[in-house]
Amino acid sequence: MVSAIVVAGGRGKRMGTVQSKQYIDLNGKPILYYTIKKFLESKLIDNIILVVPADEIEYCKKEILESNLLKVNKIVAGGKERNDSVFNGLIEAKGSDVVLIHDGVRPFVSDSIIEQAIKYAERYGAAAPGVMPKDTIKLKDKNQFSINTLNRSDLVAVQTPQSFKFDLIYDCHKRIRTENVLVTDDTMVVEHFGNKVYLYEGEYTNIKITTPEDLVIGEYFISR
């Protein structure tokens, strides 16, 4: 069984809005609508678990799911940090063989990426899509001076869904909760315990909508 955990806990600070960014309108529909719809339409996904802040559950049910005729298997409350929210989702995904963990504000994930996520998780245990950065990446010192230029061909801007064998990601998330470790995504959780993550080719269209500029790009993608 393959489960998709859609994590939608953003508050929209970088977007500059009071409204949580996953509910911002994108061509007449909230961003989260497009994200959930992609997984609902995939024949490879058996189970969809939506994670949102506890104080937004009722709003999300009525304004996003019911009003747009969307169905998820479970909607659960997020936690204080992102890894807490993911762990709450993983608890509801017990019984799965593979789990895909995806950003709620990444609405343009393709069928190809979802298919590869499952395939590589089954093969390697942990996988994530990514793209080579388009810009030159430099390291800087504390005084804002450049100290090194990195080779772009060695770098990957990691996207989601990040996919895992369920037992691996559940065990790692459970263990890291007892440690004071800052993690920004789920690949870091499994890497912390010595596991390797297979990186496959993502897509530049698989953007995470975080700033007002991203909304302009998102509108363009939908218009196409």
TrEMBL record:
Biological function: Catalyzes the formation of 4-diphosphocytidyl-2-C-methyl-D-erythritol from CTP and 2-C-methyl-D-erythritol 4-phosphate (MEP).
Region forming the signal peptide: none
Enzyme Commission number(s) from the entry: 2.7.7.60
Keyword line: Isoprene biosynthesis, Nucleotidyltransferase, Transferase
Pfam families, A to Z: IspD
Enzyme kind, highest EC tier: transferase
Metabolic or biological pathway, per its Swiss-Prot or TrEMBL entry: Isoprenoid biosynthesis; isopentenyl diphosphate biosynthesis via DXP pathway; isopentenyl diphosphate from 1-deoxy-D-xylulose 5-phosphate: step 2/6
Protein name in the entry: 2-C-methyl-D-erythritol 4-phosphate cytidylyltransferase
Site label Positions MEP for the nucleophilic attack, positions: R152, K208
Keyword check for Nucleotidyltransferase: yes
Cross-referenced NCBIfam families: ispD
Catalytic reaction annotation: 2-C-methyl-D-erythritol 4-phosphate + CTP + H(+) = 4-CDP-2-C-methyl-D-erythritol + diphosphate
GO terms assigned for molecular function: 2-C-methyl-D-erythritol 4-phosphate cytidylyltransferase activity
Family: Belongs to the IspD/TarI cytidylyltransferase family. IspD subfamily.
SUPFAM superfamilies in alphabetical order: Nucleotide-diphospho-sugar transferases
Residues with site note (Transition state stabilizer): R14, K21
Domain of life (superkingdom): Bacteria
